[in-house]
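pinned: reference chain
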Amino acid sequence: MAPYESESAGRRKATRYVVPVAVVGVAAATIGLVPALADSGSPDLPKLSAQQLIEKIAKSDVQQMSGTVKISTDLGLPSLGGMAGGFTPGAGGSSDGGDGKAGSAADPQSKLMELASGTHTLRVAADGPDRHKLSVLDNAAEYSVIHNGDEVWAYDSASNEAYHSKDAAAAGDRAEKRSKGETPKGVPATPKELADEVLKASGKTTSISVEGTSQVAGRDAYKLLVKPKQAGSTVGGITISVDAKTGVPLKFTLTPAGGGKAVVDAGFTKVDFAEPAASTFDFTPPKGTKVTEGDDLKAQDKSHAPKDLPKDLPKGMPKELKDAQGGGMNDMKVIGEGWTSIAELKLPGGQGLPTGGSGSGDVPPEAQKFMDALGDHVTGKFGSGTVFSTRLVNALITDDGKVYVGAVTKDALVKAANAAQ
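pinned: its structure tokens
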């Protein structure tokens, strides 16, 4: 019997469709690991060990490339639709908070998060560390982010809005590091050292092997398979297809332990390692474009911060005030290691989800029924709480305001919460 009891089969079915913001953030973060997709055939290539293939990746010195990427993500979340604008470029509109000043439909921070579900086609280009372009295509509309030196532009053709930011200091730091050619302290200096460190670090928790070959975007590739050795992880395995000639990862597929289609399947359908045209990274806002300056948004954020708090907060200040100042994340700690790591943190105020009923009055009974349908109610030595799930990441929010989140099973979350008592 599982170490917790579900309230109903209907609720279990509903849990995979809704997840707290923290879970969405962790799950969405998996998208940025490696670009890739579309493989066929098994070319006859010289045999390589896992260490040799990792070294090949580390030796890769590709600076220029361009291509088309298809990315499919199925975290078990519903279509966000009007709640988040879907990913129809421009559908999100401006978020001005009623004052017409804050937010932009082209702001990359919110726009690219929408890649967390569905299937999307992207065009990508790179020319060294300071020039990149990513465009998300959707029928006749297009959303692009262009990084050229110390400038970043984002443009949403559907809404005709643009976001602009300058970061001269960061660009200068990158140039200085490249000119010195120094290796940061503690970082392996050679591909072999890096491969040794990766294999050594993964020994107890991870299995790494070369599992055959494939073709990705018409190029021969090796398939590196990374799998958990630990029980309790929701990750079944990760396959990375590596270009046999350049060592560049071309395909990334993450499959869940529970089976079914991939959680993330991303890869090149076309790729070219020639230098992109310089004009690829040029951008001038079309006439009539509403331009939002990133510095202006930062200034607005600062203006909305509490003004009556001292710069140096006293050690004896109330915990609630510390939580408000630090977002309640200062108490976060990690339980376990490797694939079964679980982040534990406390919600501000030391309270869990709001509850309904005639006694508390926190939320109306109808709203409470809706919240109950979103997650599985669980109990244990820790007390009681609610588990919210995706196909990859699960989160337990206890009634006393603790959160346990990780790419682990529900049983593992309950076990961690019990052990923390």
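why pinned: Residues 164 and 293 are 5 Å apart (CA to CA). The longest strand covers residues 206-216.
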